[in-house]
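User: I want to check something. If I give you two sequences, will you return the structure for each one separately, not as a complex?

Assistant: Yes, each is folded on its own. Here is the first sequence with its structure:
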Amino acid sequence: MIQEFIVTRQGEFAALLTAFFWTITALAFESASKKVGSLSVNLIRLVIAFFLLGIFSWIVRGMFFPTDAAPHNWIWLSLSGLVGFVLGDLFLFRAYVVVGARISMLIMALAPPIAAIIGWFVMGEKLTLQQLAAMVVTFAGIALVILKREIDEPELLDGVIAPKGNRKKVKFSYPISGILLAFGGAVGQGGGLVLSKFGMADYDVFAAVQIRVLTGVVGFAGLFLVLNRWKALGKALKNGKAMARLSVGAFFGPFLGVSFSLWAVKYTTTGVASAIMSIVPVLIIPPSIWILKEKFNPKEFIGAFIAIAGVVLFFI
């Protein structure tokens, strides 16, 4: 009975596991980035992911490298890798350092709506009123977390205190630089998804991801060359704790996360899978408090739920 239920709902279970995997990888990469820098983490984790995907592809398809990809696949998937992995993750991993994985992943909930907007502009995809409403709900949930209202303090003018009548100003609860970095990560991921969809066509998904990862490796290697950060990379490789957490993140993120998300989409609808996988901003709250000792208030929990409701509404 239980086995039959699991088989029947394997798509939903796969989506739930994907959400857990992405939660683990976000926390692992946050910890590693704070120890050795986001740039080193990005390059090393992509190299690890490339070999994991290559081994998997060799077992399943009989080839380690995607030599059967057409020029169309290489061009557009490479662009997707540059936009998603290099630009998007460069911003996101820096956001991990500035505002932490919990707030960064919440803002990353904007990635699906951003992908839809980019798809509308670039590929002529349609946006329904329900999807527009879902975007507003998602924005509202995130705004509830990252914005706060404070009463103005009285000013001292010519030795006289000038009261401001208890006016309230809307301010950011977290550093604006970290919020903008996370938003940049969401834009990169959304743009990368659109380019991936166009570039992949009917090509094998795992091989497509490997092309994107390879482009990411080349892109970050170029950054290291221009910025002359090879010494920092060497130090990162010698940091045992950072490498352990980085390896965990690479295994649960680009490898297992991608695999189970595809499994989820295969055995259930895209909408159901996407809705379940979007619960990362809520799942990440307990370990952020218990493991990383981050401060938390109920408003963040409510905002995360509202943002997730917006994502769910987007895919219904």
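And separately, the second sequence with its own structure:
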Amino acid sequence: HRISVATSDTNIAAALIAALDGVAAVIRSAPDTASLVELCGKTELDLILLDADPISGFGTALADAMRSVIATDPGVPVVVLGDEADARSVLRAIRAGATDVIDRDARGEVLGGQVGRHLTGTPRGNDAGSGALTLVMSGQPGGEGLFAVNLAVLRAKAAGGALLVDGALPSSEAGAALNVPLNYTIRDAVQDLARLDRTLLSSALGRHEPSGLHVLPLAVAGEEVHDIATESIASMLLVLRALFGEVVLNVGGIRHPGLLAEFVRAAGRIYLVAPQKFTAVKACRDLLIQIGPSAPVLERITLVVEEHMPGISLTDEQMRDALGLRRSVRLPAARVELLNALNAGRPLVLDQPRAAYSRALQALAAAGMAPAASGPARPASRGAGLFRRLRTS
């Protein structure tokens, strides 16, 4: 479930996260009407909690905020965190449209039970109810990093801003590629989960001014990341999707099967990056087996053949068919240009927009997904050796 709590008290948000662990993702909003209405417009929430702080109680401003939220999304229940013993405040909250008033000071199982009774149905939120999620992954992590950066830059320019979550290990190249300092990481975001909102992230995240792209890396200096709880990463991503209209996630070195499966399930667009090598195809096949995507998910995956060269006998069609995919695109060889752009701190798609690589990526970013091949995927006769090797590997 997705819950928003409108409060300036991070202790309340932290208490909700602890009490609803495994039940709901808690998205904190600034306690003002504009922030709440913006969040309701971006994300299909299952419950909104409004904090009637002990100073002002349930006053006119809170009642007006509640009416605005209900008008924006009439289907979401609104519950007030206040003083259950104050009959006058409770009556005013109910008259303004509140579903319930629960104790602002409740914690632990009591808090979880009070909130949980309003979450008995199926979650309203779905993939269309949050910011768009684009997933970039590779069987052999490494080559997909600059693809993800350049794709995210183009998506940010088209959408008026976006977020790149870079899971590259041992450290992210996104900061160097964009000439942006990166000091705030996924670990920091997980630790700040109780107070994550757009204001905090706008000041903490690195931002590429020419495109409006924000960047959140998994690691920036090769630090250890194995102790970050996978459940916390999943909750964090859900919160980020509620706060940004578009998120590009480069899986990079993240290899937890359950987490990858969750990413794949939630993504609207999935790009699987591989060079024209048997070992890359085998690694991609192993990755897909590990994730175990369903047929509808496979339909959303596009094979991106990087550094494509017509003279290599292993074709993109053979690679696509060997992986059971119906979509593939070719990215022209541009290693020199990409590395020069990286060293200069300027993304290639902006520095050389007319380069063959840039034009190919522009077409992919604009279309969102490559066209599917006609008919089901099937082995090509020229690639019979490839399929025998994959079956015996």
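Because they were folded independently, the notes below concern the second chain alone. Residues 377-382 have pLDDT under 50 and may be disordered. Residues 144-159 form the longest helix (16 residues).
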